[in-house]
Amino acid sequence: xxxxxxxxxxxxxxxxxxxxxxxxxxxxxxxxxxxxxxxxxxxxxxxxxxxxxxxxxxxxxxxxxxxxxxxxxxxxxxxxxxxxxxxxxxxxxxxxxxxxxxxxxxxxxxxxxxxxxxxxxxxxxxxxxxxxxxxxxxxxxxxxxxxxxxxxxxxxxxxxxxxxxxxxxxxxxxxxxxxxxxxxxxxxxxxxxxxxxxxxxxxxxxxxxxxxxxxxxxxxxxxxxxxxxxxxxxxxxxxxxxxxxxxxxxxxxxxxxxxxxxxxxxxxxxxxxxxxxxxxxxxxxxxxxxxxxxxxxxxxxxxxxxxxxxxxxxxxxxxxxxxxxxxxxxxxxxxxxxxxxxxxxxxxxxxxxxxxxxxxxxxxxxxxxxx
Length: 371
Fold this sequence. Notes:
This protein is mainly α. Among the domains are: 41-121, Winged helix-like DNA-binding domain superfamily/Winged helix DNA-binding domain (Arc Repressor Mutant, subunit A), CATH 1.10.10; 231-303, no CATH class. Helices cover 34% and strands 5% of the residues. It is built from 14 helices and 4 strands. It has helices at 7-14, 41-44, 51-62, 71-75, 82-94, 138-143, 231-242, 244-247, 255-270, 275-283, 293-303, 312-319, 347-358, 365-370, and strands at 98-104, 110-116, 328-330, 337-339. It is elongated.
């Protein structure tokens, strides 16, 4: 049996105007009447989105309001796994197509609203309300008869002359067929000119949390430098960077990279950072694979810069002894207040007690007289 030909496809190709291309795709565009979604080329041909992210975006855009678009809800209807769907949602969120907003309800419950925008760059442009077209005066002009610029004055009424007997009398036209009088040809009053009010741009209904890719990025922070440059710091920083590959082989730097990163390492050394601590802060837990080690070192040298060590005055303030205040105590004998670290007797009571203990007790007079 011979290969069957699709006559419908052949007929559709025959209806395409112009010559068909010899290579590439041929589009047969049949207009949709129901169940269709309009997708912009900025999404379908986005250079930074994967095909999975584009497909997930088209599926979300085709769903009705209030439909569940979480990872598990999409994985239940798609062949992709939860990891690929989560990665696609992160791509869409990075480029502004998808937004997740946390909102607190009047009852106190916190919910997360998922908002999908089919054209995120249009949110940054101010949108104005549609202005009604000016009132047309075509119907009024069509109804009003055309007025001559300078109408000729009406001729004076002539006295009726008797018709000759041999000439038949002409019939008179009815009132509705008679030509209008000159007074009826006056132009109708002109309508007042329409008042054009410049519409003010309403505030944006939705402010994207993630800036679009075209938004200007802040300039990067400069590499730190020592406050007092010294040749000793530069030599120590150069030796540190040149020897870094022995401890971390993935941080092999070129001569230009070492020259550019020397001021940052010198700033760390100036702040009394030990080489082992610097090496641990710069090379700990690098990304895999590490494509640009010099850029990672520059970022960490800038963002993880330790604070400067305290000065002599700050250390002197820390070493300054504190003044100890002796508390008040109440005397157990006379109940007077006195300062002492421990409770007991005041000074006068202690002296009286010491004098009383030093005076010897003599014999009584009765005993001496009897003897």
